[in-house]
Amino acid sequence: MPALWIAHVHVTDAESYGKYAKLAGPVIAEHGGHFLARGGDYHILEGAQRERHVVAQFPSKQAAIDCYHSDGYQEALSHARNASERDLIVVEITD
After folding, report:
1. What is the pTM of this model?
2. For 25, 53, 70, 79, which has the most beta carbons within 10 A of its beta carbon?
3. How confident is the model at residue 39 (pLDDT cuts 50, 70, 90)?
4. What CATH code is carried by the domain that includes residue 77?
């Protein structure tokens, strides 16, 4: 069953976060992920203000989890950890 990786991000260091984004994209693709939304226009109806929103679709929940824990993604994430405040979830797509 396909799954979505949904991130809500407040960037505090654009230069470091840019390094993360450059490295993370190819790793996500290697795990079968592709972006449905990546920092586009948005409108918050409820919840915390985060100016960047990312949705990627993976072939399965496990593929998304494996991507997150992969060496390549963890290397990319090292640039985002002190450069952003993030919420990231994986949710299966249901009919």
Report:
1. 0.91
2. 79
3. confident
4. 3.30.70.100
